TrEMBL record:
GO terms for biological process: proteolysis. InterPro entries: Peptidase_M18, Peptidase_M18_dom2. Keywords: Aminopeptidase, Hydrolase, Metal-binding, Metalloprotease, Protease, Zinc. It comes from Amniculicola lignicola CBS 123094. This is aspartyl aminopeptidase. Belongs to the peptidase M18 family. It comes from the Eukaryota. The lineage of its organism: Eukaryota, Fungi, Dikarya, Ascomycota, Pezizomycotina.
Amino acid sequence: MSANPSLKGAEDFVSFVNASPTPFHAVRSAKERLEAAGFQQIKERDSWASTLQPGGKYYLTRNGSSIVAFAIGKLWKAGNPIAMIGAHTDSPCLRVKPISKRQNDGFLQVAVEKYGGGLWHTWFDRDLSIAGRVLVKTKDGLTVPRLVKVERPILRIPTLAIHLDRQEPFSFNLETQLFPITGLAAAELNRQGKGEETKEVPKIDDSFEPLATPLQRHHPYIVDIIAEEAGVGPADILDFELVLYDTQKSVIGGLNNELIFSPRLDNLGMTYCSVEGLIQSLKSSTALDKASIIRLIVCFDHEEVGSVSAQGAESNLLPSVIRRLSVLPASESASDKSYDKVEADITTAHEQSLSSSFLISADMAHSVHPNYPANYESQHRPEMNKGTVIKVNASQRYMTNSPGVVLLQDVARRAKKASYSLSSAKEGVPLQLFVVRNDSGCGSTIGPGLAAQLGVRTLDLGNPQLSMHSIRETGGAHDVEHGVNLFESFFEHYEELEKKIVID
């Protein structure tokens, strides 16, 4: 490495993670970056026929927790390819239960439900708070969402002192011993009895309600705090979807600032790289002038619980967007310069687009762990800051195959060189390969499901990290730049490279 390697990408990523404790916040963070880059919001419920134009940049959201963004080449014609990168916005966490109010032995507690396959022991003895989406009632009778993020720590899951239980290894009951404490009952009673200092407790309407109100189902002071964050009164809160998050910020660490210590690297690492890769590929005002394809990213919710939801990767979100885009008419300037001089048959444009498109399934990968070397296949041991990892699995848990590897190598050769690279080459980013041991299980990604749904060529990759699914994970600071540069190159060069790899 050079004496002063660039940390610009890592620092920007850290800001992105710190602003994104939930999928709702991650989508908002992505929206802000896309809008600053000139992307226009559209909605699924609207007709796109008169809105979408070749040369335009657009984005849409579903449920506020999944987002699709794309840019249309000015020489686009129906049936042309779509270059796609898919990631996910969710991470394992603890979610506040619909009826969360608990009290035991003088402590106020909050009941939580586990989301995804987290390393739950890492959530003990952390300074926790709450964030998520709140549905509120406005003065004109509308129900609208508000995002909240309580900055100060208000919850903690305490471990039992070793003097009282010397169990090894540490174990606990996920239902009865994972409840965070949020204060003392006596202190809350004292707060409520402070006269003028006490907020007026709103009267609960005695008219019929099918469910108990949030003020009845949760500790009232927590509802007060949420209402203050949302800018409404406690009685205006209709419902919420809140999760716990660690208030310790994502930071750059290591002796030489070469590491990132952070929550939610899996998979905000790849969400960030996909958003920035798309934006960077369009930074030139003429980037779309000679392009005849569509550049697209999609970041789904619910990957950590199987992707089977209305906004997950198994939904119709991406297939329906592709179907609508594939039949978009060409602009008058497309003429004979487009991808194919033969005008696409509009009845088969969708199938034509899928057959020539490509999807990168971007999900964080495993770095080799120095304390557990035996858990890794001897010749497939990815290292941090050595480049993005291509993930391969013969049982199709990952979708990578040889044509995809050849394509991605060409993309990597043409990518902008990292500012700290040891290589003397003018361009290029490194890649690594990973397979699991034959005696080990293998995780999966959004790749297999989307490949099966769409029939589109797919490759799985991700930046290497340690402590995956922990409340605090570790990644390489310089791999952020590797990922962004690789994705930028993919969007810039796919149109040319796709024609050179002929399989069927």
